[in-house]
Design goal:
By secondary structure, the chain is an alpha/beta fold. The chain is built from nine helices and 13 strands.
Length: 291
């Protein structure tokens, strides 16, 4: 077994052993045009379908997945310190929010020096991704305005993964040797941080139709300022914490709450909300895995 295969087996085993308390629906009001996904296991734990926005045209449909403490902080050295709980981690963050994604995007600080791969791990979510006829792992998309320590990041050293690196042309030149040794990494140049819309159009051109953004906070704000986020999947934990004065956005989110759910048992007090930030959609579509 390869080192990466062993890593995947360990993550799948950890997710399968997790005790995931079911969520309970408080509000469900999807507007026309959303896509509903799920299978028997996810619907039992999420208390219904999970909804995705649809975006046609020039750029991928893009969601932002965040957890905040009860007092509204999203900054933390370890995101687990914000207290999202097992349902947030295994069912939403590493599950439904990315199970239908072609790619998962993060800022460089999220992966720098870490042993992280952005995928789905619970066996039932792996089954749902297979039912949706998608590759086992989403494309790993990293955005940075400076270089990366290639040797310390697992995500950059697995030939089985497809990786797209969004960065400045000057950094692509400086990282030439590292990139040449890793042909599975595709560099995508932007001139400045304001070039993200052009990068998103390029992603769509190469077949990336749906993107899940997992942060960090600064990168997420750049995407929101560029109007690249269609929807936010926001979990509010039951406890205070995190770095003070680190809200998701300095301005209130403008959008429509599609679903609101609350946690039970060990996750009592947790609240999940799906907020659509974009405009009117076409007629709703349902996409399911095995019944």
């Amino acid at each position: 077994m390869s080192a990466f295969a062993a890593f995947v087996a360990r993550r799948e085993s950890e997710a399968a052993r997790a005790e995931i308390a079911p969520l309970v629906t408080d509000l469900e009001a999807p507007p026309p045009g959303l896509i509903a996904i799920g299978n028997r296991w996810t619907r039992a734990h999420f208390d219904g379908d999970f909804y995705l926005s649809r975006r046609g045209g020039l750029q991928p449909a893009t969601s932002l997945v965040m957890v905040q403490s009860r007092d509204g902080n999203t900054g933390a050295a370890n995101p687990g310190d914000l207290g999202g709980g097992a349902a947030d981690q295994h069912l939403i963050y590493e599950g439904l929010s990315r199970v239908a994604a072609d790619g998962v995007v993060a800022g460089a600080n999220t992966i720098r020096g870490s042993q992280v791969v952005f995928s789905v791990w619970h066996p039932e979510l792996v089954k749902l991704r297979v039912a949706l006829e998608l590759p086992r792992h989403p494309i790993q998309i990293i955005a940075t305005l400076r270089g990366l320590p290639f040797e310390n990041a697992l995500i950059l050293n697995v030939p089985e993964l497809r990786v797209i690196l969004i960065t400045l042309p000057s950094w692509i030149a400086l990282m030439h040797d590292e990139l040449a040794a890793r042909p599975w990494i595709m560099p995508l140049a932007i001139e400045t941080a304001s070039g993200l819309p052009a990068a998103w159009r390029r992603l769509r051109e190469i077949g990336v139709e749906r993107v899940s953004c997992v942060g960090g906070r600064t990168f997420a704000e750049q995407l929101m300022n560029a109007s690249l986020i269609d929807e936010v999947y926001l979990t509010t934990s039951a406890r205070a914490g995190g770095e003070p004065n680190t809200p998701l956005s300095p301005r209130p989110l403008r959008g429509r709450v599609v679903t609101r759910k609350h946690g039970t048992r060990a996750d009592a007090g947790m609240v999940f909300e799906h907020i659509v930030l974009s405009g009117e959609r076409a007629e709703a579509t349902n996409v399911s895995g095995s019944a």
